Amino acid sequence: MFFGRVSEYKGVESLLEVVSSLSSELYSELLIVGRSQYKVDYSLFKHDKSKLVIVDEFVSESAIKEYFDQSSILVLPYIEVTQSGVLMLGISSLTPMVISDCGGLKEQLDDGEAIFYQNNNRTELSDALTLLLTEHQAYSSYQKNQKDLIGYCLQMSLPKQLTKYNPSLAEASYFRCYSFFHMVLSCGVISMVLILL
Questions:
Q1: pLDDT band for position 37 (50/70/90)?
Q2: 151: nearest Cα among 110, 180, 172, 116
Q3: Which residue, among 147, 151, 129, has the nearest Cα to 91 in the 3D structure?
Q4: Are strands 74-76 and 2-3 parallel, antiparallel or unpaired?
Q5: Is the pLDDT confidence value at 186 over 50?
Q6: pLDDT of residue 125
C-alpha cells in the first residue's frame, strides 16, 4: 500500500512500474490511498486493473486503521522528503515497510525495523517487495522489531533511571523515543499504538 497525499515527489509512478514487474501471483492488490495533488499516470500499472485500488480522497482518521488492517506492506517510494508521518503509522500498525533512503527517513529507524532501498533504485525496491511477499520469516521479523520499538519507547518513560548506569545511552534512548512519540502524537495516532499493546 501507498498511503498519504499523492504528490509528484513521492514516487507513485515508480511504485506502479515496480509492482508491474513482479509476478501478479505474489500479491492480491496494490492500494494507493490518499488525495492526489497531480495527474498520476496509472497506465504504468500493467497488471489486471482489478488489482489496482485507488482511493483518491482525503482519508478520515477513523478510516486510517481500516486501510492499514487490510494492507500487508507499506511502501514509501519517496524521491525527496525530509520526514514522514506515514512512517509512524506503519510502525504503530506493525505493517512491514519498504522505504526509500532519501532525506532523513533512514535516520528515524534502525536496521531491521524497515527495509531501506537506494532512492530511485527500482531493482532494490523490487527485491525488497519480493522478500516481504515471499519470505514469511523475514516478514515476521520486521513486525516483531516494530513491536519491540513501540514497547521500548513506552518503557523509556523514566529515562533518568538509565542515567546513573549509562548517561550517554540514556540520552540517546530518550532522544530516539521522544522523536518517535512526538511524530506519533503529531499524526494523531497514539491511540493506534496503545490499542496494539
A1: very high
A2: 180
A3: 147
A4: unpaired
A5: no
A6: 98
Give the torsion through C-alpha atoms of 106, 111, 117, 119, to 10 deg: 10
The structure's pTM equals: 0.80
Q: At 63, phi and psi to the nearest 5?
A: -90, -15
Name the residue with cell 522505504.
Answer: 99
Look up residue 91 and give its amino acid: I
